[in-house]
Design a protein that fits this description.
This protein is an alpha+beta fold. Helices cover about 35% and strands about 25% of the residues. It has a five-stranded mixed sheet, with helices on one face. Strands 1-3-7-5 form a four-stranded antiparallel sheet, with no helix packed on it. A two-stranded antiparallel sheet has the order 10-11.
Length: about 300
């Protein structure tokens, strides 16, 4: 087991400009401080609330890789702007030449005997009233927001990582009070227990387009199921009709068999009757002839 730090994470916490019904994004930069290939994976306690791109990857030695965390639009404001959501970044050393396609969940299993480094990031919400910076532009005050724009979908190909510059998220570093630090330690303990029990679900890179595609696929599947149900019902009706026709054919076949047997009996009786009359006549003639011959020639 190594004691060397694998990844350096900046910023140490995720700060989002919170506005109702609006998305907010923040970038995180990871630096590989080792001389080996390092695989990382991002987890969170609220996977339906956040979108991470990419949520896993490979970082070459001494190189950097960044990922964007987007908080989905929220309809309600949390009490006192306090958020207990946590992120967990797991990293481990992988063989040279490993690509993203080779990453599996088993790589980050603690019972595998491999060294798994874990870094925890807490979420901090910034209200619009406390975050803007007013700058005079043409005599008017222009409000600058610290909200980081969403990057275009960019997933590292293989092990190549293109490190973009660190965004405005670092501007808010070091603003927490002693009370927040105590809450942070308590919340980190909760994330640690979740991580040990493997109850922290993986981040799924979902966005509005993916949700729309899922809805369309759901409707298509529903339509296909309806069509298949209709076909099954039609097939059941056809099977019932065929069963009824088979039963009728069986009855007709039995009737024809009985009629054929009756006809055979009648024909046999007629043949017996037709063949028995000449024989009796011949016997009578023979008997009369014998008697006449006896009387004529005593």
């Amino acid at each position: 087991m190594t004691t060397t730090e694998l990844l350096q994470i900046q910023p140490p916490e995720l700060r989002f400009l919170f506005e109702l019904k609006k998305q907010s994004s923040c970038q995180v930069q990871t630096v590989n401080k080792s001389d080996q290939y390092v695989a990382f994976k991002v987890k969170t306690t609220s996977p339906k609330k956040y979108c991470v791109r990419p949520n896993l990857g490979i970082i070459k030695p001494k190189e950097t890789c960044d990922f964007t965390v987007t908080m989905q639009a929220q309809r309600t404001e949390p009490l006192d702007m306090q958020c207990k959501d946590k992120f967990l970044i797991q990293s481990t050393i992988v063989p040279f030449g490993t690509t993203e396609d080779d990453i599996t969940s088993d790589m980050f299993a603690k019972d595998s005997g491999k060294y798994i480094e874990e870094k925890k990031l807490r979420v901090v919400l910034i209200s619009p009233s406390s975050s803007p910076v007013l700058l005079p532009v043409n005599g008017d005050a222009k409000q600058e927001s610290n909200k980081v724009p969403m990057e275009k979908d960019r997933v590292p190909s293989g092990v190549e990582n293109i490190p973009p510059p660190l965004k405005v998220c670092e501007e808010f570093k070091g603003l927490e009070t002693a009370k927040n630090m105590e809450e942070d330690r308590r919340d980190e303990d909760v994330v640690a227990r979740h991580s040990e029990n493997e109850n922290v679900p993986d981040i799924k890179p979902e966005n509005d387009a993916a949700q729309l595609n899922s809805a369309e696929e759901y409707e298509q599947l529903k339509s296909r199921l309806s069509i298949m149900d209709t076909k099954l019902r039609a097939a059941d009706v056809t099977i019932l009709k065929l069963d009824e026709e088979m039963r009728m054919n069986t009855q007709e076949k039995d009737l024809l068999r009985k009629e054929l047997e009756d006809m055979r009996r009648k024909v046999d009786m007629r043949r017996v009757q037709a063949g028995g009359f000449p024989l009796l006549f011949v016997c009578m003639v023979a008997l009369v002839s014998v008697v006449l011959g006896y009387y004529i020639h005593p």
